[in-house]
Amino acid sequence: MLVSVCAMSDTADPQATKRRSWLAIAPFAAFAALAILFLFRLGAGDPGKLPSALIGRPAPLISLPPIEGLTGPKGAVPGLDAAAFKGNVTIVNVFASWCVPCHDEAPLFTQLARDSRIRVVGINYKDAADNARRFLGRYGNPYSAVGVDASGRAAIEWGVYGVPETFIVGRDGLIAFKLVGPLTEDNIDSIMRVEIDRALKKG
Amino acid sequence: MIPELGHYALILALAVAIVQSIVPLVGARTGDAVLMDVGTKTAFAQFLLIAFSFGALTYAYANSDFSLATVFENSHSMMPAIYKFTSLWGNHEGSMLLWVLILAAFGALVAAFGANVPTSLKATVLAVQSWIAGLFYLFILLTSNPFARLDPAPLQGRDLNPILQDMGLAIHPPLLYVGYVGFSISFSFAVAALIEGRIDAAWARWVRPWVLLAWIFLTLGIAMGSYWAYYTLGWGGWWFWDPVENASFMPWLAGTALLHSALVMEKREALKVWTILLAILTFSLSLIGTFIVRSGVLTSVHAFASDPARGVFILVILFLLIGGALALFAWRAPALKQGGLFAPISREGALVLNNLLLSTACATVFVGTLYPIALEATTGAKISVGAPFFNSTFAPLFVPLLIAMPFGPLLSWKRGDLRAAAQRLTAAFVIGVAGLIAAFAIEGKPVVALCAVGLAFFVIAGSVFELIERTGLFRASFSIAARRAAGLPRSVWGTVFGHLGLGVTLLGIVCESAWSVEQIGAYKPGATIPLAGYELKFTGLSKRDGPNYQEQVATFDVSENGRSIGVMEPSKRTFAARSMGVSQAALMSRGASQLYLSLGDVNPDSTTTVRAYYKPVVLLIWIGGLIMALGGSLSLSDRRLRVGSPKLARNRAATQPAS
Q: Which of B327, B340, B356 minimises the CB distance to A28?
């Protein structure tokens, strides 16, 4: 900028004029580069999508207690047993009754749970047992097991940014995929089912 | 029916804007006075149509007409009337309508008060202004229609985001938008000057009031936004270097530079090309700010529900407006006539230094804001650039700026005497050192903060000093000095207050950052929290009902030296419609300092997490902003800017046909 300021004070020198016309193009060139960058980023999808350091790592071996008084058709719904990950493809949904998007995604988990090839389990994050039971009573309980994480410690182990989040754990007990944010009509088929199939194929 | 009329008015405004973007321009090229005059009338028509459209949407919000999608998504029938009104711009669609309302209002203002501007320049300015307006009307109509209906109409709305249910929403966005959009005028003037191929000192005189007006509002908008964040977000921070804050700060830095370079251009016919470029860049930065918030390119606490389709549209608008203006600049600027010469040590030289530092600071913020995007685009790595980067790059640029600031007004035009200026600032320097020593006596450390306090006092004293110098206070009798003060041009007062305000803000920032006291703990009712000489006694928790929320209120008796001085009641509100909670901080001002209490969770052992802060002279941060805006207003009311030079301008227009 200093150069252009100085250049402004000298006049007729043809070399200076030439230099000035180059300088005059510079702002446009800079902006063009910026516009290309923006265009590039617009196509890159959601900037809120966060990478997970845990993908490919074993799922945390933490067992969680069941929700008090929660019963299903087969009696009391058990807590989360870390050993049960081995041998099954498991969908782990972190949810809470106070989380608004969780209300929206709850019916979609009921749909997912109809798939008998997979297990759907829940981690009830920082919630009151009464509210959690009411939540599951209202939308139907898609989870074959629900672990209570009252303190939020387990969520830290799982590397949860916020609720809702959903993990796919493969038969080998490794975390195969993580969805940050709610399951929606849009991503259930395009992302979730695709990732489930991939995890199932992996053996 | 009324929303449909509003929608229709918006479509009509687009049609009028298309006329205005072509006809006056043709008139200006061919010298046809009738065609040129069309622009004035269409500018009024646009304003009336958009005002009608805005009124129609206001009506829908005020009456909780949930058949409109935006009303349904952002309003609730139980909301207090003021929030029903402000929720209009608490969302993307409505805020865009507010944006174009202000744009149309500025267009009408140019049409009304541009009588002293040569007709052809005025016609071109109005045409350029209408290009901007037309593109944004099209954007609203095609991607963000605020009048979209829902069928069947829901019975109840989803409520406004609780964080936005605050007086801050009534004040902050309109101020900020007037600032952002106000810079469109200087942009239009710059583009028009490039089209006309002629710029001179008179151009700067016409543009400066508009720049000042936008700058005043942007200053107020940023200050208000900062105070809002401070009392709402619950941990006492007032600036976060968040991408969207930066998006408002960059036009402010560029606009401040523009304000000063236009001064050089007006007085000395120098820095002309640079001023034109700054005028383009300032509004471009405002536009990029709009783009960043709404496109979803960056994440931020301010992000609107983002939509890539909108992002692409805004990007096209950006490309047409900014790209077009800069291409025009590249083509026409080298041919513009050069300005006058000046020595490095002079008023002009000082203002060049100011521009250099401000534009570098602006570039720094720009790099810091966009670096994460660029890095992710090239390497895929995800990082965020936060306060440490900005603090360590921004401060080294602002410190020399602040040191140099009191010198500027004391140097004379063309050739100044630095030593004489330094001698005249001796008193200010002594006051700065005294401030440093006083801070040392009170707080002791850290050294950096002590020096910064000294600098703040130097800036404040240096700003006032010019006034003392010019009125002869302490030398002449008080009545003579008062008479001289009254006789000083308002622009002198404007400079004094503008610079003074910055010093005051600096003082607030330094003291708050260095010497805030913080006490976080879990307490039971009955507990007493000692805090910086005050005692906060937690007397109990109670429940209260608000119009559309329930709140849990903690009551604290505040006492100083055993004497009770009041009650503070921080609370946590739960909004049923969104089942979302908001913490409501309690503030108590003690002079310019504040006590700040914010509630956390109620723990299983029936204790409540309480965050208590003592923030020394924190209010100075925003009082400084108000003083800066006052300075701007004084400058704006200066006689020279109001009167202009109509005769001269008319003669010029007559003798110099448009090229």
A: B327
Q: For residue A8, name the pLDDT band (cuts at 50, 70, 90).
A: very low
- Asked whether the predicted pLDDT for residue A1 surpasses 50, the reply is no
Q: What is the CATH number of domain B1-162?
A: 1.20.120
Burial of A200 (0-12, 13-18, 19+ CB in 10 A): middle
B218 phi and psi angles, rounded to 5 deg: -65, -40
Q: What residues pair up with A148 in beta bridges, in sequence order?
A: A124
CATH topology for A71-201 is Glutaredoxin (3.40.30)
For chain B positions 398-427, those within 8 Å of chain A (CB to CB) are none
Q: What is the pLDDT of residues B218-269, one digit of tens each?
A: 999 999 999 998 988 767 788 888 888 888 999 999 999 999 999 888 888 8
Extract the residue ranges of chain B whose pLDDT is less than 50.
643-659
Output the pLDDT for position B421: 83
Q: How many CB pairs under 8 A join A and B?
A: 104
> Does the beta carbon of A138 lie under 8 angstroms from any beta carbon of chain B?
no
How far is A9 from chain B, CA to nearest CA, in Å? 6
Residue B284 distance to chain A (closest CA, Å): 10
CA distance A38 to B297: 7
Task: Report the residue from A42, A48, A98 with minimal CB separation from B311.
Answer: A42
- Give the tens place of pLDDT for each residue, B372-417: 878 877 777 777 777 888 888 888 899 999 999 988 888 888 887 8
Average pLDDT of the segment spanning A24-50: 77
8 Å CB contact of B339 and A5: no
Taking 60 as the threshold, does the pLDDT of residue A72 lie above it? yes
pLDDT at B323: 94
Q: Please report the pLDDT score of residue B175 as a whole number.
A: 94
Yes or no, beta carbons of B373 and A37 under 8 Å apart: yes
Chain A: give the shortest CA distance to residue B485, in Å: 35
Note whether A14 contacts B: Cβ–Cβ < 8 A.
no
Residue B202, SS3? helix
Domains of chain B, by residue range, sit at 1-162, 166-338+349-364, 517-615
- Which chain A residues touch B360 with a CB distance below 8 Å? 1
The DSSP output letter for A84 is G
**Residue of A28, A50, A100 with shortest CB distance to B579:** A100
Interacting residues of A148 by C-beta distance below 8 A, sequence separation 6+: A64, A65, A66, A67, A79, A124, A127, A129, A132
> Measured between beta carbons, which residues in chain A are less than 8 angstroms from residue B370?
34, 37
- Which helix (H) or strand (E) covers residue B540, if one does? strand B534-545
Q: Going by C-beta distance under 8 Å and a sequence separation of 6 or more, which residues neighbour residue A165?
A: A93, A94, A158, A178, A179, A180, A181
- Tell me where in chain A the CATH 3.40.30.10 domain(s) lie: 71-201
CB atoms within 10 A of CB B578: 17
Tens of pLDDT, residues B113-122? 888 889 999 9
Q: What is the dihedral of CA A30, A36, A37, A43, to 10 degrees?
A: 170
Cβ-defined contact of A35 to B318 (cutoff 8 Å): yes
B356:A2 CB<8 A: yes
In chain B, the residue whose alpha carbon lies closest to the alpha carbon of A51 is: B382
The pLDDT of residue B657: 41
| Residues A3-15 as b or e (16 or more Cβ within 10 Å = b) | ebbebbeeeeeee
Answer yes or no: do A38 and B295 touch at CB < 8 A.
Answer: yes
- pLDDT value of residue B304: 53
